[in-house]
């Protein structure tokens, strides 16, 4: 499943636990400095995915949604930055919170709703797209080119 030569991967998830476990497995391929952009509608399972991946990176504490705080920070194998841009109206707000200092600090960054500030995000990020139809989530991953 985790063939590094395979740049695009698709997984179909039936339950929250499926998504969590899949992300936890994938986290073995996540390295220091990686940025994961997680796209998907409200309730798609973006936060579930982040929690699973973060668990795989050694985060043991509960991870509440950063929707209102924009950023939650954790200490695991790496520093983990969990952003949610849902409430960002102007991408320039991200400069005010020192966004660039975080993403280039050598930690691992997860961003929900990256489309809110797409121009500010590095092109070589890992892209995760979650769509759903009839209770089946389709999780597509594009590793860095
Ligand atoms: N296959 C699935 N994967 C992830 N979440 C699922 C799945 N099926 C149902 N759910 C439910 O959908 C919701 C996803 O919530 P959340 O991860 O907070 O969404 P998002 O962050 O994308 O808005 C949870 O309530 C979860 O229990
Ligand atoms: Mg969320």
In short:
The chain has 145 residues and is α/β, with parallel strands linked by helices.
Mean pLDDT: 94
Residue runs with pLDDT of under 50 for 5 or more positions: none
> Beta-strand level of the residues, as a percent range?
25-35%
Q: Could you state the CATH homologous superfamily?
A: P-loop containing nucleotide triphosphate hydrolases
The ordered string of helix (H) and strand (E) elements is: EHEHEEHHEEE
Domain count, please report it: 1
Helical amount: 10-25%
Task: Describe the fold and architecture.
This protein is of the alpha/beta class. The protein has a single domain (8-142), classed as Rossmann fold. The protein is 21% helix and 29% strand. The protein contains 4 helices and 7 strands. It has helices at residues 16-26, 46-56, 93-96, 99-103; strands at residues 8-13, 35-39, 71-75, 79-84, 108-112, 126-133, 136-142. It has a 7-stranded mixed beta sheet, covered by helices on one side. Strand 3 and strand 4 form a beta hairpin. Helix 1 crosses helix 2. The structure holds adenosine-5'-diphosphate (ADP) and magnesium ion (MG). Residues 13-16, 18-19, 40, 42-48, 112, 137 line the site of adenosine-5'-diphosphate.
Short key terms for the protein model shown above:
Rossmann fold; globular; seven-stranded mixed sheet; binds magnesium ion; alpha/beta; 145 residues; binds adenosine-5'-diphosphate
